[in-house]
Write a structure and sequence with these properties.
single chain; alpha/beta; 8-stranded parallel beta barrel
Amino acid sequence: MQTRKLGYSELYLTTIGLGTWAMGGGDWQFGWGPQDDMASVRAIHAALDQGINWIDTAAIYGHGHAEEVVGKAIKGIRNEVIIATKCGRVWEGDSREIGKSLRADSIRREVEASLKRLAIEVIDIYQIHWPEPDEEIEEGWDTMAKLVKEGKVRYVGVSNFSLDQLKRAQAIHPITSLQPPYSMFRREIEEEIMAYCSINQIGIIAYSPMQAGLLTGKFTKERAMALPDSDWRSRHPFFMEPQLSINLEAIKQLGQIANEENISLSQLSLAWVLRNHKMTSAIVGARNPQQIEETAKASEIVLPKAKIDAIEEILAWRINNI
């Protein structure tokens, strides 16, 4: 599988990374519904078998559960995989209520807890999950920089930061990577953030490149309407009318392009994200081995310019109708 250098770091990430959001299970506010842990472990092993060399997780996924699953899956093969996790979303004990903190003492508690759950000695990429509270960004990022010096983490990155927030953090310590949402339906970073990251040697890791499953082509209106309350997508505008019908029509047209290229819509969605070499890697979630075996192949797909132009026309139609 192809690799790309992550920002100024010495890490080379495969252009597809494995995301573990759904592996946290459904027993929390932003869960994806019930998930079998053994299926998660098999999906992780399948990803590594496909050549994927890094896993993205977060403390808040299932309130620590996803990290525990990853820790079990990589036992005995730690040196074969790059581990990225996140901090800044907190909870107390068995509480399901999610808090926000970038205070120094909070981040230090989080990093120790993540190291324990993952059963590793150092985190390869440690990221601030959300820039909230905004007034705590400087304290949080200064703490992240100290964790690097102390050897608890190798590199530090951020997720969901605006351009102004990136600049504030960069003034304190170099940012290794930014993890933003990026897909055919979410292109906000193209306006200014991509250029800033390129100039400052900040790697970009796209999350939700298949728009939370919407761009797999496997969603119908009926399936979207039947999503359980335990699945956060049931409350997202992309999966609700009036956007849903417009999205599904665009997806139908995109599916025709995928068929012409003899690839799946999931693979088309990922190949489109990776068409831009400013993008280091794309995170792909998987709940079973079959899902990751399909999407991992997108790493090698190069879309012809004519197809990229046709995709742009479809995406412009979607925007004009929303």
